[in-house]
Amino acid sequence: MYRNEIVAGDVNPHYINPRQGLDRLQKLMDEYCGGSTVNYMTNDKLLNICLKKLKLLEEDLDKLAASDFHELLRCWELKHRHRTSECVTQHTLFRKETRWPGYYYRGDAMKVDDENWHVLTVSRRDPETGEYTMEKAPCYHLVNEEEEKAASSSANTGSTEAELELV
User: Fold this and answer.
1) Which of 6, 21, 86, 142 has the fewest Cβ atoms nearer than 10 Å?
2) The domain 18-96: what is its CATH number?
């Protein structure tokens, strides 16, 4: 008899609101992409599960609903956060190392590998297929090692810029 009725004025079983979607996205990224509840640890298997769950969430985000302009803004923000989360997961999966400080540890690649991974990660997403192409790009340092050492030693000794210029 009341099979298709809404149980409350702002509840509809066919739609989700932005808060529900954001909670799901945050939980997903935290548990599978190396968040605080798992001590920033992730691995290949968890990242692939994350990508599958992000794909399912993307389908659910087609059913976002907003009750006012503020919620409509939150809907658009959630869609952008979802795409960013997908990109972060792809980059983390591509980099077969732990680079700390980074925000995550790769349990299946616990070492910093400067020889292979002291690079920038560049990605492109095909809007038609949703597939990512990943590549490495050289990392250029604007401050050379001597300048960096001088700056860190002056910070440790309390020297000022004026004292460094006199030397």
Assistant:
1) 142
2) 1.20.58.100
